[in-house]
Amino acid sequence: MDFVSDGLAYGRRFRCLNIVDDYTRECLAIEVDTSLPGLRVAQVLQRLAELRGLPQSITVDNGPEFAGRALDAWAYQVGVKLSFIRPGKPVENAYIESFNGKFRDECLNEHWFMSLRQAKSLIEEWRVEYNTERPHSALGYLTPEQFAQAHRQQRFLTLDSMSVPY
Predict the structure, then answer these.
(1) Residue-range definition of the domain harbouring residue 116
(2) Are 58 and 83 a contacting pair, CB within 8 Å?
(3) In this structure, how many other beta carbons lie within 10 angstroms of the beta carbon of residue 101?
(4) Which of 20, 66, 75, 116 could disulfide-pair with 60, CB 3.0 to 4.6 Å?
(5) CATH number for the domain including 13?
(6) What's the burial of 11, exposed, middle or buried (CB within 10 Å: 0-12/13-18/19+)?
């Protein structure tokens, strides 16, 4: 999970909160707005938790949105460990940094956003394409969505076979 900043055509800045599953490579959310404080980060994570369940831990940098009380309180309440990288060591959160580079090159740098609404729409289109149409070599040339689906099916098969009495 990390932030990327960009600007609208008329100069107004906006931020993107990128949330990516390191295992499945799925981009779970890109929250776009002019301000994304810690409370908003916690709300986005809660929304994702209700849809997908909770991770054991979330790796973050030491930015104020991640190191503040709102995210800390949310993580404590739901039992998620916040793993902070060392200051100045983005390599410790390498996958999100790589994702951010692709996102900037393939989406942000390719568009001249006239409004925040347009930015949200085009960014969401890119996120869906990233998850559904782009195979990853690390995933056996499956898309993140295909890999996640296969992983969920395998997990359920494993759980089902464990519960069958012999």
Answers:
(1) 2-162
(2) yes
(3) 11
(4) 66
(5) 3.30.420.10
(6) exposed
Neighbours of 72 (CB within 10 A): 14
In total, how many domains does the chain have?
1
- Structure tokens of 128? 């869906």
pLDDT in tens, the chain (166 residues): 999 999 999 999 999 999 999 999 999 999 999 999 999 999 999 999 999 999 999 999 999 999 999 999 999 999 999 999 999 999 999 999 999 999 999 999 999 999 999 999 999 999 999 999 999 999 999 999 999 999 888 765 544 444 444 3
Alpha-carbon Rg for the chain in angstroms = 17
Number of helices (H), then strands (E), belonging to the chain: the values are: 6, 5
Joined tokens for residue 160:
């089902």
Residue pair 137/15 in contact (Cβ under 8 Å)? The answer is: no
**pTM of this prediction?**
0.90
